[in-house]
């Protein structure tokens, strides 16, 4: 009978030992979970910080390149009137984009760097033309003459019907192809004005054009921009040579 308390003490000690082991395991698990949670919170904070940096600094360099690319490509659909009405603000915005790209050009890929240089040169030539137009408005009498030469029976641009718009672009581009080599910078200003007016009419009747006509017009627009850009380059080179 005297041994029974010893057994009870032994049993109590065993239970206490098991309890301590369980507590230690629980503490270790809690610590591991705490470490994992802390790491997750740290990662979350890092992501939040990155998001904040992006929000504060604005677009990435590639995104700014895309913005410049889109604007230069879409300017084909803008009329001279629309550009003139907001030219100072537009010029400052595009100059700011170009300046940001210039500062961070090393972060671009090789292909993007080359594209940026081409867009930059194209934009600079285009800006010079816009500045010249601001200082020397086009003459309405000359515009009428150019509309007749470039569009012939489609010279009344505001009344060109959707079914005839594709033919109007073909007529326009036919004249551009055959006569462009003899045009001066001043001539190109008038040609570009007629082209912008034609694009404005396309925008008005866009929903009534067939898919085939839309695709053909886009092809003709791309050809015009390429020829116009080549003419601007020649004028720039000639201007340097003359100096």
Please give a structural write-up.
The protein folds into two domains: 61-135; 140-242. It is extended, with a radius of gyration of 35 Å. The model is unreliable at 34-39, 42-57 and 239-243 (pLDDT under 50). The protein is mainly alpha-helical and 243 residues long. It has helices at 4-57, 61-74, 80-85, 87-103, 110-135, 140-151, 162-179, 185-205, 211-242. Helix content is 82%, strand content 0%. The protein has nine helices and no strands. α7 (162-179) packs parallel to α9.
Distance between the termini: 123 Å
> What does the radius of gyration come to?
35 Å
- Count of runs of 4 or more consecutive helical residues: 9
How many domain regions? 2
Secondary structure category: mainly alpha
Give the SSE string: HHHHHHHHH
Largest sheet: none
Question: How much of the residues is beta strand, in percent?
Answer: under 5%
Shape: extended
Mean pLDDT: 75
β-strand number:
0
**Portion in helices:** over 70%
Poorly predicted tracts of residues = 34-39, 42-57, 239-243
């Amino acid at each position: 009978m005297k041994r029974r308390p010893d057994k009870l003490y032994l049993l109590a000690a065993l239970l206490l030992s098991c309890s301590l082991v369980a507590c230690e395991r629980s503490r270790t698990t809690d610590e591991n979970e705490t470490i994992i949670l802390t790491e997750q919170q740290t990662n979350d904070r890092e992501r939040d910080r990155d998001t904040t940096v992006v929000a504060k600094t604005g677009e990435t360099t590639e995104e700014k390149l895309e913005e410049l690319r889109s604007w230069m490509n879409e300017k084909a659909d803008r009329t001279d009137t629309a550009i003139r009405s907001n030219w100072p603000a537009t010029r400052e915005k595009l100059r700011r984009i170009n300046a940001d790209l210039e500062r961070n050009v090393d972060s671009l890929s090789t292909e993007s760097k080359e594209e940026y240089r081409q867009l930059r040169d194209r934009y600079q030539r285009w800006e010079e033309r816009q500045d010249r137009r601001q200082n020397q408005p086009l003459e309405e009498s000359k515009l009428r003459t150019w509309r007749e030469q470039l569009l012939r029976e489609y010279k009344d641009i505001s009344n060109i019907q959707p079914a005839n718009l594709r033919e109007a672009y073909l007529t326009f581009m036919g004249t551009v192809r055959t006569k462009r080599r003899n045009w001066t910078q001043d001539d190109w200003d008038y040609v570009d004005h007629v082209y912008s007016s034609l694009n404005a009419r396309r925008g008005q009747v866009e929903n009534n054009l067939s898919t085939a006509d839309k695709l053909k017009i886009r092809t003709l627009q791309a050809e015009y921009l390429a020829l116009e850009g080549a003419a601007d380059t020649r004028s720039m080179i000639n201007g340097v040579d003359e100096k």
